[in-house]
Design goal:
31% of the residues lie in helices and 17% in strands. By secondary structure, the protein is α/β, with parallel strands linked by helices. The chain has one domain: Rossmann fold (3-Layer(aba) Sandwich). The radius of gyration is 15 Å and the shape is globular. The termini are far apart.
């Protein structure tokens, strides 16, 4: 078996966690995968209710449009990383920023049902979204 395939399988089994990218942030998938994350991208045109049911339970969701997902975050137990406050949405800024926020705020271990709205420097406040 190819050594690269073996290494890739080992890396996937030890990934930091699973995150979901909203459809308009699909360009971040490769960079986040390289940073050892299991990344899912929402297919274009999917309805919000379906996104929540199929992709978000027990995961972190990165989106520019958090308002449509805040109300269900605590009952479906997912966290939201909002990129709404960030003006430049390119991979060179967002990939390291998302990685930094995940580590800095220890988001993998948080109880789900929260939102964080980081700025360009990765500073933000976590707001719990309790029913």
């Amino acid at each position: 078996m190819d050594k690269r395939l073996v290494a890739r399988k080992i890396t996937k089994s030890m990934a930091r966690g699973a995150i979901v990218l909203d459809e308009n942030l699909e360009h971040l998938k490769e960079g986040l995968t390289e940073r050892n994350m299991h990344v899912f991208v929402v297919p274009k045109g999917m309805k919000d209710e379906e996104i929540i049911r199929v992709y978000l339970t027990h995961r972190l969701f990165v989106t520019n449009n958090p308002k449509d997902f805040i109300n269900d975050a605590s009952s479906f137990e997912y966290g939201i990383i909002s990129t709404k406050k960030i003006k430049y949405k390119g991979e060179n800024l967002l990939v390291p920023l998302i990685s930094k926020v995940l580590s800095k705020y220890n988001l993998w271990s948080k109880k789900h049902g929260f939102i964080i709205k980081p700025d360009e420097k990765g500073k933000g406040e976590i707001k719990n979204l309790i029913d």
